[in-house]
Design brief:
Layout: H1 2-24, E1 32-35, E2 38-42, E3 59-64, E4 67-73, H2 80-89, H3 99-104, H4 114-134
Antiparallel strand pairs: 1-2, 2-3, 3-4
């Protein structure tokens, strides 16, 4: 009986160790990828707490040589008229900035699209912080 308990306990310890190693392994979360020599940060997961007027406003942030190249808005549920204003007047405000400067930048939102603007600014900050931590 003692031998069976020892084997069973040892087996459980190995199983626990295996589960720990699997859960600690890097996850392929697709938050940051590399495309054409640029890092691309997708804020769909990491910026989900930043809500526009209707829902989340995920972005793709393109970074090369530690500078923001461009920011693209991804599919969302914002009112098309106001989202178009945000895309036209806000998304390029960080272009050309070094990541640290972009994080410190105080960018004005778009008049009439305050919720969407604030959500975009939150997503940009989350995306750039993720880049700095994981590049």
């Amino acid at each position: 009986m003692k031998k069976k308990i020892t084997v069973w306990t040892g087996g459980m310890a190995l199983l626990a160790l295996a589960l720990t190693l699997v859960s600690a392994a890097p996850q392929d979360d697709k938050v940051m990828t590399k495309e054409d020599g640029m890092y691309v940060v997708n804020t769909t997961k990491i910026g989900s707490q930043y809500l526009g007027y209707v829902d989340t406003t995920p972005l793709k942030i393109y970074i090369k040589k530690n500078k923001v190249v461009k920011i693209e808005g991804l599919a969302n549920q914002e009112t098309p008229k106001y989202w178009a204003k945000v895309k036209k007047q806000l998304l390029d405000k960080w272009n050309g900035m070094k990541v640290n400067d972009a994080l410190k930048a105080e960018v004005d939102g778009v008049t009439g699209a305050t919720f969407s603007s604030d959500a975009v600014k939150g997503n940009v900050k989350a995306g750039l912080e993720y880049y700095k931590k994981n590049k």
